[in-house]
Specification:
Helix content: 10-25%
Order of helices and strands: HEHEEEEEEEEEE
Number of helices: 2
Length: 180
């Protein structure tokens, strides 16, 4: 009987010792990708001026303004760039300028861009509209943008000043990037 108890006690002690600290253990390593989309307007190009200062400009409209590397985009996947504008404010009382008189167009990109929709000028509107789309993401993608004022020709703005003083109409344009 004593021998049997001794054997049971030895197995019990070995069982407890086997459950103690071991010489290996595991850690799980995860690599998680959180989607990002950023868009930035070149800070030195945040004002677009169409200046009507001679008869030729009033007849033919102002020259388009092209800004190289105007938009910088970072995106972890496909995206859409939308544009929306406020109405023009300022100027003469009772005289308005339609937003559709001004158009915006992406005209050139850095390498690495894959997408569509960079085809034609888009008239400004208070309704958000897609300017272009991308079928892939990228880092530091730069886009040249041209602003034009085709609605300002044929003398349409000839009476846009007050008592010989310059008058300015102002609208704010907002670019937005969203996942596609």
């Amino acid at each position: 009987l004593t021998g049997a108890l001794l054997i049971v006690a030895l197995f019990s002690v070995n069982g407890v010792m086997a459950e103690g600290p071991s010489n290996t253990d595991n850690v799980t390593v995860n690599i998680k990708f959180t989607p990002i989309q950023t868009i930035e307007v070149n800070g030195s190009q945040n004002v677009v001026n169409f200046v009507y200062d001679n008869i030729g400009t009033y007849q033919n409209g102002a020259e388009p303004v092209e800004y190289p590397s105007h938009l910088k985009i970072n995106s972890s996947g496909p995206f859409v760039v939308n544009v929306v504008s406020t109405d023009f404010t300022g100027g003469l009382s009772g005289k308005t300028i339609p937003l559709s008189d001004v158009e915006v167009q992406v005209v050139n990109t850095t390498t690495g861009y894959t997408g569509a929709g960079i085809t034609a000028p888009l008239p400004l509107s208070t309704t958000k509209a897609p300017l272009f789309t991308s079928t892939g993401g990228g880092m530091n993608l730069e886009f040249d943008v041209t602003y034009s004022n085709p609605g300002g020709k044929d003398g349409k703005y000839l009476e846009g000043y007050l008592k010989g003083e310059e008058v300015t109409y102002t609208a704010d344009v907002t670019y937005e990037i969203i996942a596609n």
